[in-house]
Structure formats: structure tokens, C-alpha cells
Amino acid sequence: MEGSLAKEVGAVVAATRILRFLVSLRRPAGVTEVARTLGLNPSTAFNILRTLAGEGLVTFDPLAKTYAPGLGLAELAVSALDGIHAVRVVRPHLEALADRFGVTMTLWLRTGSNRVVLVDRAEGKAMVRIHMNIGQRLPLLIGALGRCMAAHAGLPEAELARQYAALRSDALPPFKTFLRQVEQARRDGYAVDANNFVSGITTVSSAVLDSGGRPVMALSAVDLSARLDRAAARRLGVALAEAAAEVGRALGARPAGMAQRSAA
Q: What's the whole-model pTM score?
């Protein structure tokens, strides 16, 4: 409004202050500390934090009852992602895995409860490579990354069924098969999708967990199925799981809980 200031929206101002406080604090904080420090009503602070957590902008540790900045903040600055710590941490892993296995490596960021967005990639040196555009969005449960997300997201089976029913892919497995694959991903630390999401394409993924053990990102490899047989996909999956666990530790998250194993 020219010549005067537009009226501020209190909830937006409070949410912005909370985010800035959590970022500057450099450690998790509970609702009481946030409310007391910022002079907010505890109920207001709780509702804002819960909303921010639902949008992926903060993470919540249910054991410690604390909040910390979430990687969803990166989505607000996709054009400047190279300057964000999380992407800088992951980038060397993407490049090393792409070179080692000759695949296209991608980094997916969870945004909200049902979507992921592609925020970085590294392409291998194969003559024929699969290219994906930064900023591409996909449903949370799609392909191999979807099994990894579902393995740790803590979503009720009814919600998983609802989201799964809305997926579109070349050969979507039955929901019961998907649930078995989710359990396998939880045990192994990675998942493989061969020709289900896209015919002729295999994806191998592993989730990066936050301090509360929930998935915030996924490392995903994409290649032609003809170049990734079962043994190769397993070796790639083990390497992805190890990289995802290392990224989680570097970002302050607890380990993914996967059983440590060596590549075959």
C-alpha cells in the first residue's frame, strides 16, 4: 500500500519469528522455550509449530518433544539450493555414486505429507543417460523412493492406501505387494523398483532420516533396467543406504537403523 504499511498478519509474523529463532538457536527447542523466548502464547506457538512441521519446514522429535529447522525450508529457495548446507553435504555422494555405478543420481526432498521435489542430480558417464529436471515433483509413494518414504513416515495404513490408490504408473503393484516391499525397505535400508514406475527403467532409493527418524530426503538412482540386473541393483542399494546414513549423520540425524552390510 503506497504511502503506508499494510496491516501485518500476526500468525505469519509469529511463524517467521519462530523459524528464525530455531535457525539461530542451532539446537532443537521445545514449545515452552520458543513461546517464552519470543513472548508468544504457548498454545499459539504449539499450533504454529505443528503446522510448520506438517509442511516440512520444521522437524519434531516425539521423544524429546523438541522442534528443529526442517529441510523443507530448502523448497522455498529452489533456485539457490547450491548454497544450502544439506545439498552441499549430499552433492559429493551423488557425484561419487553416479561415477561409480554409471547411473543418474537424484536427490528428492520431501515437501509436506504427500509430495517430493527433485532438488539436485548427478549424471554418470554412460553414453545413454536418463535426464530429470530440477524442480520436478512426484507423489510421495511413487517408485523405489516411495517404498523408502513409507517405511519410515509413520503414516497409518489407511492413509498409505489412500495415497497409493491415487498413483499413476506403468505397472502399479497391488497394495498388499507394496506393503511387503515397504517392510523389505525398512529391513534393508533401500528399495528397488524395476519397470513398475516406468517400463524399462529401474530406480534404487534410500531415505535420509531426520533427528526423529522420519524421512526428509531420498537418494535415488535411475538407469535402464537392461543395465541393472538384480545383483547390480543390490550392490547399488547397499551403497545408497550407506551414503544416506552418512548424510543423515552429517546433518545431525540419527542413523537410519539399517543393518550394516558389505556390497556383494
A: 0.65
